[in-house]
Amino acid sequence: MAVDAELTFWTVQLQQVGGNRLLRAPMHPEMAWLDAPPVALALHFTDATRRRWCEHGLAMPWVEVAQPLSSVAVEQLAVEIPGRAKPPRRGLDLRFHVMVAHTEAAGWYGFVPALGVGAQADDRDSLLAAAGEAVMLELARNERLLSGQAVLATQWFTDCAPRKHPVAIRMLGFSEVRDLQTERKRRLLPLAAHALEFAGGRHRAYDVDERLGEIERAMKSPFAHCLLLVGPSGVGKTALLEELVRRRSPALGGAKVWGTTAARLVRTMTMQGGWQEHLDRVCTELREQGDWLFVRNLAELFEVGRYIGNDISMAEHLRPRLERGELSMVTECTPEQVARLEARHPGYLQLFTRIELVEPDPPRLERILRSRLRADATDRVATRVSAVREALRLLRRFAPYSGFPGRPVRFLEALVLEYDEQSGPVDGDAVLTRFCAATPYRSVGSWPCSLPPPRPRSRRRSTPRFSVESRPIRKRCWRAGKQRATHPPAPR
Question: Which superfamily does 189-356 belong to?
Answer without folding.
Answer: P-loop containing nucleotide triphosphate hydrolases (3.40.50.300)
